[in-house]
Amino acid sequence: MTQAPLLSVRDLSVSFNTRAGRVDAVRGLEFDLWPGETLAIVGESGSGKSVTALTVMRLIEREGGRISGSMALTRRSGEVVDLMTADDRMLRQIRGNEISMIFQEPMTSLNPVLTIGTQLAEVIILHRKCQSGEALAEARRLIERVRIPDAARRLTQFPHELSGGMRQRVMIAMALACQPRLLIADEPTTALDVTVQAEILALIRQLQDEIGMALIFITHDMGVVAEVADRVIVMRHGEKVEGNALAPLFATPRNPYTQALLAAVPRLGMGSPLLENVKADAQPVLAVSGLVKRFPITGGLLKRTVAMVHAVDDVSFEIRKGETLGLVGESGCGKTTTGRALMRLIEPTEGSIRIAGQEMTGLAGDQLRAARRDIQMVFQDPYASLNPRLQIITSVTEPLVIHRPELSADERREIAAGLLERVGLKAEYLDRYPHQFSGGQRQRVAIARALALKPKVIVADEPVSALDVSIRAQVIELLVHLQRELGVAYLFISHDMAVVEQMSHRVAVMHMGRIVEMGQSSEVLNRPRHAYTQRLLSSVPIPDPALRKVRVIDAAREIRSPVYPLGQSPIRSPLVEVSGGHFVQTEAA
What we know:
By secondary structure, the chain is an alpha/beta fold.
């Protein structure tokens, strides 16, 4: 180790002045970080993790934060800089070159009106002083390095055209562009599937080994902490309640809060729910047959269609009343596109969608609006799905205004207050705006809104990915309770295999727009037959430092693309029943 730490933080405090008075977000935080070391900061939503990260970057003042204490950074040159007193010119030199950050919500961090290539190249040109052509070539290399397929086309796309996981990978590529000495990663793998997560963590570890990069890793995923961290700080209500090396903190946590945090971690192998409340001969409440969704790619001066993205290709499944089907797969495999097609938020190219026996694909106008009472969606990005200009009371009661106009304003408020309390929020939060909530709290608001009409089917697209482990357990318990009480069916889209096992009666594994394996959760997760399913399960991080895996980047693994020229289509291989209710694709498409 060097004589001085890379980053030394002493007595750091951050406060905000609000209408209700002063709020102390961080109080008296202290730690040292050495080159090549990984420090994990964990805790529940609102504990001060993200505020700490923004403070180290000196970005918290933009949010109204008032800071005190000291933060000393040792630069590449050996110069020690006091980040608390550094001027804007010094901070511009430090950000990107010395310290980079991967932000929690990529959609709010990426410019929606600039292409991915432009935004990546801008960072490279600014900090590495190279020409635009060279910067674009480097941008493409970075896109490939974070395992995004069809890199050349992705550079020409805008953020809204990418899945949540792909947007997060773009943010990771941007942060790594200048090979910083310190990388602050705020929930960097929340939106990533387990295979890409494993490769990204291996990539970060590789950079740490190559350039001695230090890492502050902010997360609520204790499995990832066990995989990457050297030391751990546990925060609660803005204070450090425990700090220790990784192994002893997991083995003998001293603080009751740390003990509760570790006890709430879902672990693969804990078992899946039984179909005791689902009648075997019951009619499906959601029946999907031959669902296809293709997106055109245009090219040339006349912008003619030259290729098609086969986002969803011949997907079929059924869900009965009171049943949960988990839909898993890598980012970009078509999970979210499938969910949006079921809601008719995007128009299916082909196929049939029946909800409670009613065909959805031919409906329009008032008929479609009425049918949507039976199917609601919890979106992947809660910040993007909540109107930032509307109070929470308006967002949560909007479905009631549209579908139950007979209710008075007081009745709607009472229902909304009850919904917030059921998802772990206080009724007085109804008058707040989305930006006043943490990411996890916003997701709970989105879940409350989806429950307002008591629908027959809920499409839950990563509904608990932004939640800390204790609240995640409460929300899963809530979803299970509502299912038993109301008989609601869930299409549960997630990359967290432990949560999928805990929630789902059956699991469907999706790859390149097709379902490659489907069956009872216990069968698919304990006895996977398809090679892709096996790779998914082998990539799951285990919340036990003793079982820590040495991750390597599989450079030989082909990054396949769902793009095919006009007139060409992927080979469709049928699903074959290998045991009772367990179906596997006969060969890779």
